[in-house]
Amino acid sequence: MIENQSLVDELESAIANADVGRRAAILRRVADLFSSTSGNLSNEQTVLFDDVLQQLVDEIEISARACFAEYLAQSPAAPPRILRRLALDDVIDVARPVLSHSEQLDEVTLAEGARTKSQAHLLAIATRKTIPESVTDILVERGNREVALSTAANPGASFSESGYSSLVRRASDDDDLAVCTWARREIPRRHLLKLFADASDSLKRRLSKEDPRKAARIADIVSRAANRLQAQTRESSADFARARALVQPLDEAGKLDEAALFDFASAEKFAETVLALSAICDLPVGLIERALVEERSEQLLVLAKAARLSWKTTKAILLLQRPAEKSTADLDRLLETFLRLRPETAGQAVQFYRLRERSLTAGPN
């Protein structure tokens, strides 16, 4: 009792004293006393400590306040309101240690800091040992690129479904963020599928290098799903129905040859060209359609060479891919590749395509 009364007298003196240096020095003594006795304090006593600390903190210079925040951030016990006061300080040097390290800081304060404070404050929160879903959602939605990357790379960050959706959406324009997102072990499969499906070819190669087994599994699922969707769309298409009614009888009658294929391609009849080339190469319609739609010019060169088509017919097929954007230089480059390509090599590639397409239409989903 005597010791406590002595402390109270000293606190009152410190608060009344204009000596800022003395106020800074006594802050630690008050915090130490609170930490050592917090388990035995009543609510009223806790509030008293909080009030005293806040009065002292408000009167000291920024550098001293920052030092005290560093000290209190490591404390196993600290009054809640002074922690909140420091965490929401506009000066990042004061707020950072508490936002980054204090395990006593409550979720409500973290969320408020994430919603209202600077990007530097958000980055401090993103480095915490653990981050609850409600706070992570705000960091991903409101944070800049550095904040988003730090949050995605933090294994202690918990993401809600909404948070993952926002993260994957942002990752579609940021390869580094996509890699961080891809590396998260607990990310739901549907978000991985979306991330991989939207990735560029170069990013897919990077993701595959990061985790080859995961990439192979996800790529297989994406391909199967894309094939099913493509087939459903094609089967419901009136254009493909009319084209099939024209091409199939020609094929059955043995009249589906290069001349017929050239006529279809030069007349810009997309569906008829796809079905004819599919029959001539003995490959699934989906593969031919994707090669044309996704502008896989080199793959079309391989198919044409394996089928021993002329450059005239091959060029007509290539021009179905946005003809206005195919310059003379582009066509000259493709012609050089076509002339260098050996039929035997093209035939081996087509056999590989055939086997791969069979694997995509069989086995588990």
How far is the first residue's CA from the last residue's CA?
73 Å
Number of strands: 0
Major pleated sheet:
none
Rounded mean pLDDT score: 82
Taking pLDDT < 50 over at least 5 consecutive residues as the criterion, the unreliable ranges are none
SSE order: HHHHHHHHHHHHHHHHHHHHHHH
Q: Which structural category fits the helices and strands?
A: mainly alpha
Q: Write down the Rg.
A: 33 Å
**Globular, elongated, flat, extended or rod-shaped: what is the shape?**
rod-shaped
**What is the count of DSSP helices, taking H or I runs of 4+ residues?**
23
| Strand proportion | under 5%
Q: Helical content, roughly?
A: over 70%
List the keywords.
mainly alpha; 365 residues
Write up this protein.
The protein has helices at 2-16, 20-37, 43-57, 62-73, 80-87, 92-101, 107-116, 119-126, 133-142, 145-153, 161-171, 175-182, 189-198, 201-210, 212-235, 238-252, 258-266, 270-281, 285-293, 297-306, 311-318, 328-340, 343-360. Helix 6 runs parallel beside helix 8 (119-126), helix 9 (133-142) packs antiparallel against helix 10 and helix 11 (161-171) runs antiparallel to helix 12 (175-182). The protein is mostly helical and 365 residues long.
Short description:
The protein is mostly helical. It has 23 helices and no strands. Helices cover 75% and strands 0% of the residues.
